[in-house]
Write a structure and sequence with these properties.
The protein has 243 residues and is an alpha+beta fold. The protein has eight helices and eight strands, in the order H-H-E-E-E-H-E-E-H-E-H-E-E-H-H-H. It has one domain (17-236): HIT family, subunit A (2-Layer Sandwich), CATH 3.30.428. The longest helix has 18 residues, at 78-95. The chain binds zinc ion.
């Protein structure tokens, strides 16, 4: 196991070849329909493969050089943009009549692994799900040996993650952040699970949505509907300035 992990943790700085077509975020490879606006330096999109309809993703788009593989190793200032995205996404949820929005980042690259086993390039991005989803429980289904701590201030993420893969999850209720947690590996197996597993797949399974491993082909109508709804939201509220 140790040998596998040693060869697997490729380490940051191994390559700068991010424009190889494998990472949609690095190449900004999204349709005009999917592009919804910005939150600071983050781009907001309606992603493909939405397990929960009306999900959004905010990702870092590198203005120069190479994007950060996850927020825990990003340069200072990202937390402010993520908080802006949270405010926008949660306002969108409430505009649609919901009360709760759950956010997460699965920081697979926190330990230095840049590529998933499937060749998926890790890239800092932050996801929103409308509704009440217990992310901690989802992660525990991937591997129960995780350690959960409070993360009161997002900008403490780098220090708290300390070079480990992680999941950060925050819950908003009635417009307020009511829960902010950092999920870290508590064993070697959970380290691997946090690097390898996809929360989306576990969520789809739990919600009876079937196999989402081929997520790019799943439920394209949700991508369009979310984009349509978000544009109606921005044109009817003060979020107009983002469009
Ligand atoms: Zn990328």
């Amino acid at each position: 196991m140790v040998t596998v992990l040693a060869s697997y943790r490729s380490g940051r700085g191994g390559t700068n070849e991010t424009s190889d077509g494998r990472c949609a975020f690095c190449t900004n490879d999204f349709s005009d329909e999917q592009r919804l606006g910005r939150a600071g330096d983050l781009n907001i999109i309606s992603p493909l493969g939405q397990v929960v309809p009306s999900s959004l993703v905010a990702f870092q788009f590198p203005r120069s050089g190479v994007a950060d593989p996850c927020f825990s190793v990003a340069a200072d200032g990202w937390a402010r943009d993520v908080e802006e995205f949270e405010r926008i996404a949660d306002t969108f949820t409430r505009w649609r009549g919901g009360r709760a929005t759950v956010f997460y980042e699965q920081g697979r690259a926190g330990g230095g692994q840049l590529l998933g086993r499937s060749g998926f390039w890790h890239h800092a991005h932050y996801c929103s799900w409308p509704g009440e989803i217990d992310v901690e429980r989802l992660v525990r289904t991937m591997d129960p040996a995780v350690v959960v701590t409070q993360l009161d201030d997002l900008s403490d993420l780098g220090r708290a993650a300390a070079g480990r893969p992680y999941v950060v999850t925050r819950k908003f209720l009635d417009g307020r952040c009511v829960d902010s947690r950092l999920i870290l590996p508590g064993s070697e197996s959970s380290w691997t699970a946090l690097e390898d597993s996809h929360l989306k797949f576990s969520l789809a399974e739990q919600l009876g949505e079937g196999d989402f491993r081929d997520w790019q082909t799943r439920s394209p109508e949700r991508t369009s509907q979310t984009a349509h709804d978000f544009r109606a939201f921005t044109s009817s509220t003060h979020e107009r300035r983002m469009a």
